[in-house]
Write a structure and sequence with these properties.
This protein is an all-alpha fold. It has one domain (3-427). The chain is built from 18 helices and two strands. It has helices at 3-22, 36-47, 57-60, 63-78, 80-90, 97-107, 115-145, 147-162, 181-196, 198-212, 223-247, 259-272, 288-300, 313-327, 342-369, 376-387, 402-417, 419-427; strands at 334-335, 338-339. It has a two-stranded antiparallel sheet.
């Protein structure tokens, strides 16, 4: 039982437990036993912090069912190993080497040192941001729907946004709050910080503290911090501008809104497309160009170590920098005066290739199963949304056959645990070898 197998099987165990709970009669608003496929799909979507739904969460599930979904989202966002290891720490168990390795692989950390502290920091950071989100969302919900319901809605949506899940307790998701500046800023803020990675948040906190206290000692910012921050800003601003310019003439999305509301809706869509799954516009009415921009953002996703999915911003940045280095005739990749190790470049290529193959395979299978009335862009959008653990939909998920839904279940699971981690779990840990083979060149490109 390797660490990678423990993580993969742990996620499966949580999904099965969630499925069993969501099948209970008091998990549905009708009081009847839930359909197995609906329960499995919803549990997988929650644990994998995707937000894909085949039923209306607001009306189909009871308060208990919605609480189970929120609990699964919280466990899935923190990660199976993070939750279980933290609970064992609370019970007084010693933090062993295997636990440190598990945390390192689950959070994609570079070293084993400080695993105990980073684990406590993750839980503390999660509580701080989620409680802040609850307080701010109360200002939006309580005046409209009252204290009891407003408090529950604030808690649910804060947890869902921080964990980049995209589950909402409104039948139209958040379309009815399209013009609310407070809700849009709170939800997008939680999504961004939840998906940027805990170590980046820690470095950002240290940087702000040093600036405020005017400290003479400055901490050197890591390469991961610089790449994650710069790439995230580029994707958010570029995505907002692209969606605004493309959808501006489209009266079915943002064309009828004022300029300020258009920019707000474009900003929200650019943020949520990167892994959250909330929406304030009708996704099925977007232009083809707007859909492809959204697909690109969904595939890239967020940053390592956070609650986001996708191939990650650092992977995309390494591939882009590798391409730029080749065009310049260089044999090494340099980012911010730091040379990127070849092993990291190979890992980025492996993650991207494995991700593309997963998406292509799922699209082919669903295309063979579903009727011809579903076009290519609809199927591709649903699959990339599932793999990137985003949850945005063009409205076809509920109408898919049971087999296609199971394909999406597998796609969401692979996207959450990671392609390389899943392969490592299936094949076992790599064996070291002392054999070196001779080099030989071949034609590329």
């Amino acid at each position: 039982m390797t660490v990678s197998r423990t993580i993969c099987l742990g996620f499966i165990a949580v999904i099965l437990a969630g499925t069993a709970l969501l099948m209970l009669p008091f998990a549905t608003s009708s009081g009847q036993w839930n359909n197995l496929i609906v329960a499995l799909f919803t549990a997988t979507s929650a644990v994998c912090v995707t937000g894909h739904v085949v039923v209306d969460t607001a009306t189909y599930f009871s308060g208990f069912g919605q609480f189970v979904i929120m609990l699964l989202v919280q466990i899935g966002g923190l990660g199976y190993m993070t939750v279980t290891t933290f609970l064992l720490l609370l019970l007084g168990r010693r933090f062993g080497l295997k636990d440190k390795i598990a945390i390192q692989q689950a959070l994609d950390r570079r070293s084993l040192q400080g695993s105990n502290q980073i684990l406590r920091s993750i839980v503390a950071t999660t509580l701080v941001f989620e409680l802040t989100g609850v307080f701010l969302l109360l200002l939006e919900f309580v005046p409209k729907i009252g204290w009891s319901k407003g408090l529950w809605f604030a808690i649910f949506h804060s947890v869902s946004a921080w964990n980049n899940a995209g589950f909402a307790l409104f039948s139209d998701n958040l379309v009815s709050y399209q013009g609310s500046l407070l809700l849009n800023m709170v939800i997008t803020g939680l999504i961004i910080f939840g998906g940027i990675g805990y170590e980046v948040i820690l470095e950002l906190y240290l940087m702000l503290r040093e600036t405020i206290t005017n400290s003479s000692i400055r901490t050197v910012r890591s390469l991961n911090f610089r790449v994650a921050i710069s790439t995230t800003i580029f994707l958010l601003l570029g995505g907002t501008l692209s969606i605004w310019l493309i959808e501006m003439p489209n009266n079915q999305t943002i064309g009828t809104l004022g300029t300020g509301q258009q920019l707000l809706a474009a900003w929200f869509q650019a943020v949520t497309s990167r892994t959250a799954g909330f929406n304030t516009i009708d996704i099925s009415k977007m232009t083809t160009a707007g859909l492809f921009i959204t697909i690109a953002l969904m595939l890239i996703g967020g940053c390592p170590g956070g609650t986001a999915g996708g191939i990650k911003t650092t992977t995309a940045r390494i591939l882009a920098s590798s391409t730029y280095a080749v065009l310049q005739g260089k044999e090494s990749v340099v980012l911010y005066r730091r040379q990127v190790p070849n092993a990291l470049i190979l890992k980025a290529v492996g993650v991207t290739f494995g991700s593309i193959m997963t998406v292509v395979s799922a699209v082919i299978i669903i295309s063979l199963i579903e009727p011809p009335k579903l076009n290519f862009i609809q199927i591709l959008f649903e699959v990339v949304s599932g793999f990137g653990t985003v949850g945005l939909s063009m409205g076809i998920t509920a109408d898919l056959s049971a087999v296609s839904k199971l394909v999406l279940v597998a796609t969401m699971y692979i996207g959450r645990v990671g392609v390389l981690l899943l392969i490592s779990a299936l094949l076992g840990d790599p064996k070291s070898t002392a054999i070196n083979y001779p080099e030989e060149s071949l034609l590329v490109g």
